[in-house]
Automatic annotation (TrEMBL):
<protein>
    <submittedName>
        <fullName>Glycosyltransferase</fullName>
    </submittedName>
</protein>
<dbReference type="InterPro" id="IPR001173">
    <property type="entry name" value="Glyco_trans_2-like"/>
</dbReference>
<dbReference type="InterPro" id="IPR029044">
    <property type="entry name" value="Nucleotide-diphossugar_trans"/>
</dbReference>
<feature type="domain" description="Glycosyltransferase 2-like">
    <location>
        <begin position="8"/>
        <end position="169"/>
    </location>
</feature>
<dbReference type="InterPro" id="IPR050256">
    <property type="entry name" value="Glycosyltransferase_2"/>
</dbReference>
<dbReference type="Pfam" id="PF00535">
    <property type="entry name" value="Glycos_transf_2"/>
</dbReference>
Amino acid sequence: MTKKKIIVFMPAHNEEENISGVIARVPRAFHPQFEVEVLVIDDGSKDRTVAASKAAGADHIVSFPHNQGLGAAVREGLKQCCLLGADIGIMIDADNEYPPEQIPDVLAPIIAGRADYTFGSRFKGQIQGMKLHRRLGNYTFTLLQAILLRRWIYDGQSGMRGFSRDAMENAVIVHDYNYAQVLTLNLVRQGYRLEEIPITYQVRTKGQSFIKFRQYVTSVLPAIYKEMRRPVSKRNVNPQTNRDDAGV
Ligand SMILES: Nc1nc2c(ncn2[C@@H]2O[C@H](COP(=O)(O)OP(=O)(O)O)[C@@H](O)[C@H]2O)c(=O)[nH]1
Ligand SMILES: [Mg+2]
């Protein structure tokens, strides 16, 4: 029997100190029906991110010649997963903050066919080292998404997310700077089923976060507005529980 494919992809910008640790921790044989491959999207790194990824055993590396932004890198990751024949995709930050050991947990609802889009949720799990201002920022942007989607969300900025093939094919990321909020607004509005799984998160010990408060707010808020103004057509992903279809 030919196996199905899971691709674990990592957007990375100057993560030479962290990425090999993440790649080494990816479980490769946790499910008898799936093979697991690793894809790195190197967003114009100026350090040894690519060499470190190769040495750590990455199966595929796509390099942008110039830095394009995290939203552009995740968009490319989803596209490459489809081109490489993945049945399921999962992104995980390359900075060693999220637990690759929990990839099976985060993918379980998709493998079981009960969800199309999953998060490793820090706020449902355990957090080590997150500063208060980051925590408040996370709460605020998560609450905004919950209000816009009229459903509870725990961790709207998670850097660990699983996707069904269908969700990967139809996801739209409307800006290049980031993906966190607009991707969820897009997929949930299309009717894809979201589930959040508790994970353990450890703030990075090497390298720096790229997030600067002013740039984040001035990039993310207009993108959320742009996404919410876009009409999306509801996909028939889950006729049983899809509220719009409930009375049909
Ligand atoms: N593609 C891309 N990825 C980036 C960029 N800056 C950071 N990243 C990656 O995005 C992920 C999250 O970045 P990070 O700076 O840790 O953000 P934080 O976890 O929200 O503080 C990591 O894997 C980074 O390597 C960028 O300009 N482009
Ligand atoms: Mg990080």
